[in-house]
Amino acid sequence: MTPHNTDPLYLKKEAKRIYDMNRREQNKEAMAIAAVAYYQKNKTAIRAKRAEFEKANPDRLKEQYSRYYYANQAARAASKRAYYKENKAAILTKSAEYYKKNKKRKLARGVAWHKENAEQVKEYHAKWRKDNPCKIRSYSHKRTARKNNASGVEYTIADHISSRFEVFGGRCWMCGNAAESMDHVKPLSKGGSHWPSNLRPACKSCNSQKAAKWPYPTTIKGA
Question: What is the rounded CA–CA span in Å between residue 70 and residue 41?
């Protein structure tokens, strides 16, 4: 294809650019090896020059890194997921070893961070509790069930609690009003289980009145 610019100097530069590009492509591997060798030989000087440049151009570098990060966010995330999947066992082992060696330091750093960001942590936990009521109920009931050595405690999870609420339409199984808690129909103290079949939503009033009574009517009042 004939270039639009027919200036001899331009044509000479363009021919040299194409020649250099083809030469780099043909000698890519050799040039990469040479670049690594050059870096190893001049590592100290290169790092010093880079540090000097970074110190003199913080804003420019920050903008470059930010632009690169957001432009390649999806690719970086995919690469991390793939790497984790391929090296999961090694990563978990290394992470466990690191935590074991640095447990005190990590815990101290975590405590310090929580103290410095107390309000942020408080807001996060309040929002999480509001967004995950079934998980809160699940954790609370599981603790109580474990104390009573109830069967089904390792099986029942937050999704089961949510499903039981849906089955009863979010209504108390005893009075039909809006439910705020989950009741063990046969109380744990009377040998009741923590299997989903023994769980029903209840309002706080009925749950308090029922307490550990057993046997107890198992139909909604007035139904």
Answer: 34
For 121, other C-beta atoms within 10 Å of its C-beta total 13
List, as one string, the DSSP characters of 143-196: HHHHHTT-TTTTT--HHHHHHHHHHTTTB-TTT-SBP-EEEESS-GGGT---SG
Beta bridge partners of 199: 184
Number of structural domains found in the chain: 1
pLDDT of residue 222: 44
Tell me the one-letter amino acid at 184: H
Measured between alpha carbons, how far is 47 from 53 in angstroms, rounded to an integer? 10
In angstroms, rounded to a whole number, what is the distance separating the alpha carbons of residues 143 and 130?
20
Whether 170 has a pLDDT exceeding 80, the answer reads yes
Task: Check pLDDT > 60 for residue 1.
Answer: no
Answer whether residue 79 shows pLDDT above 80: yes
Please indicate, yes or no, whether the overall pTM of this predicted structure exceeds 0.85.
no
Lookup: tokens for 45? 């000087």
- Residue 197 CA to residue 114 CA, distance in Å, equals 40
Q: Which domain holds residue 191?
A: 133-210
pLDDT digits (tens, 9 = 90+) for 182-214: 899 999 888 999 999 999 999 988 988 888 888
Q: List the CATH number of the domain containing 200.
A: 1.10.30
Query: Could you tell me if residue 148 is inside a domain?
Result: yes
Query: Residue 171: beta bridge partners?
Result: 178
